[in-house]
Amino acid sequence: MLEVNELSVRLGGSHILQGVSFTVPPTGVTALLGRNGVGKTTTLRAILGEVPATGSIEFDGAPALGRPTHRLVRAGLGYVPEDRCVFAGLTVAENLRLAVRDKNPDFRTVHELFPELRQRAAQRAGTLSGGQQQMLALARVLLNPQRLLLIDEPTKGLAPAVVTAVTQALARMADRVPMLLVEQNLAVVRRLARDAVVLAAGRVAWHGPAAELLGDPALTRDLLGVGSTASRHPARPANAASSGETVGSGDAGSSTDAAGRRA
Ligand SMILES: Nc1ncnc2c1ncn2[C@@H]1O[C@H](COP(=O)(O)OP(=O)(O)OP(=O)(O)O)[C@@H](O)[C@H]1O
């Protein structure tokens, strides 16, 4: 669905992405991981054409780099940014109506996945809780036909129970449309992602099955600065997404001699 090759981005005099290459398959969730400031959001923004980049990107079989953002969005590239960007002064219903691009917006799916938004249709979006605002941001992209969703840190700053609810909504969305998901909560990644791409020092440091990464505590510690509990809890329940294993900050180490998948 998405092929990123040798993506390079310079911002403010820094070479943020230095030849990033990875693919996103046409089904399932691919997690884009890495320590704070490594360039995950920049990668999403480069795919969307929001920052100048070199390299090549193919989206749904067509070249994407250099195509204007609005064309990519019309072609079915949906984006839910980290700050959610709901219109605080407008109601839930107005926020949803403003997002409609398609002749036949899919309110049925939105109401099925997010019944609470229907009950709160007349409430101003700025008065919703963080989790409800996240649901609204996710609902807005679902109104239009999508080929791929780029979702940036959807559980950031949410209370544990709300993280579980948002994770469940994302799991149901992922049944319908593939996702490239930036997420720092590894329990959420474990619940949702089939594949994982780890960025470090401007490049892809690891690319492979998410379970393989999260099942290797030494590798997760080395690449992400966190000890994964996967091996101790192989059959964690769905609501385990609420427990906190959050990716750390600083440069990822590169000393692990991990087999095979290290880029
Ligand atoms: N417009 C810009 N001008 C200059 N530097 C920028 C700009 N946008 C991002 N950066 C820098 O690029 C680096 C990568 O930022 P980015 O937001 O992509 O990281 P991230 O991996 O998403 O981080 P986090 O996990 O903290 O959200 C950071 O050092 C950031 O300060």
From TrEMBL:
Its source organism is: Paractinoplanes rhizophilus
Q: Where is this region: Disordered?
A: 228-263
Per UniProt, which keywords does this protein have?
Answer: Amino-acid transport, ATP-binding, Nucleotide-binding, Transport
Q: Which residues form the ABC transporter domain?
A: 2-226
**What are the Polar residues biased-composition ranges?**
240-257
UniProt entry tagged with the keyword Nucleotide-binding:
yes
Q: Which family does it belong to?
A: Belongs to the ABC transporter superfamily.
Protein name listed in UniProt: ABC transporter ATP-binding protein
Q: A single GO molecular function, which one? A: ATP binding
Question: Which Gene3D superfamilies does the entry mention?
Answer: P-loop containing nucleotide triphosphate hydrolases
